[in-house]
Amino acid sequence: MKHLIPFFLFVFLTSANSFAQSDINPVSDAIMQDVYEEIVTPYKYGLVMIHEDTSNMIDCPTVFRKDSMWYMTYLVYNGRGYETWLSKSEDLLTWEKLGKVLPFANEDRWDWNQAAGYMSLVDHTWGGSYELDTFDNKYWMSYFGSNTEGYEGGLLSIGMSFTDKDPTVPHAWHRLKQPVLKSTDDDAGSWENRKLFKSSIIRDTSKLTGSEFVMYYNACGDTSNPRKWIERIGMATSDDMVNWKRYENNPIINHHTGISGDAYIQKIDSLYVMFYFGAFWPEGRKDAFNRFACSYDLVHWTDWKGQDLVQCTEPYDEKYAHKPYVVKWNGVVYHFYCAVNELEQRGLAVATSKDLGESTLHYQPIKVKLKR
User: Fold this and answer.
1) Which end of the chain is more exposed for a tag (fewer CB within 10 A), N or C?
2) CATH number at residue 131
3) Is the pTM of this model over 0.85?
4) Which stretch of DSSP H or E encloses residue 87?
């Protein structure tokens, strides 16, 4: 049976939201409501990507288009670490796995056990082409990596990879020799001095920040309680995709508890919309869910105070429904996300603005315990 995402309003604690919102150049409540009504996806289609090996997990979709076909990069965790894979689709619902684009590297590299990639310079116009742009005659993909085995193990840092070949054909992308951002950098803030995670890069030809390329990334760092995990979202800018400068007033999204992460930008008319996920906030909440914020200048963000865009409602996403990637195509909004059940099986699902039926894909019984 088709399930609708329930339309109840979750009442957020004032303290949890006030820290996330900038008082500079705010977006009005009326415009925030208009954005919500434009992007909301009340119909859960279901799972669109799972791993045939139940001991592996799939995570973090990035969707783009080329030559009338859709493509998606995604992460696979196999117990050793993350690798980045590529798939394709004609309709955004049925996906064919193609192969790896960021496989495990040689032992002499800083990132040989982790390579979690995210396509850069995707057209971020809402309802636009969603095609990849190039810089210096290359396609680019940022990633986080480390030389340590395990689930998000080690000193995770942000690296850059690129290719001058067809990005829709699986092949190992070239990687810069060293990370472009590390938690041990001299200019790293205390909020990011433990691990760096997902990065998302857009091209801003108007240079609102003073630079052509803008990166959003989430990180965890120092807290009053070292055992308490807090992730926030910051930004950095560049003019060459290699040398990056952190924004001096990072972080830009901060709920002071739990996780705020995996930022992804779309531009609706003159307004920038940041999709991101939250987890474990306000205090006492145990799930993960997708949210959004809006900005006129890419720097100062107004946080949405209403109900979640996607939250846990189904057996396949009963633990976490998070890590958004949202596109609008032919009048339909597709909200891709990572769906995690109570057994911690992890795959990709989609919710839509129009009822497109229900997926026949389901998690399979676990034959081997999930590797973490």
Assistant:
1) N
2) 2.115.10.20
3) yes
4) strand 82-89
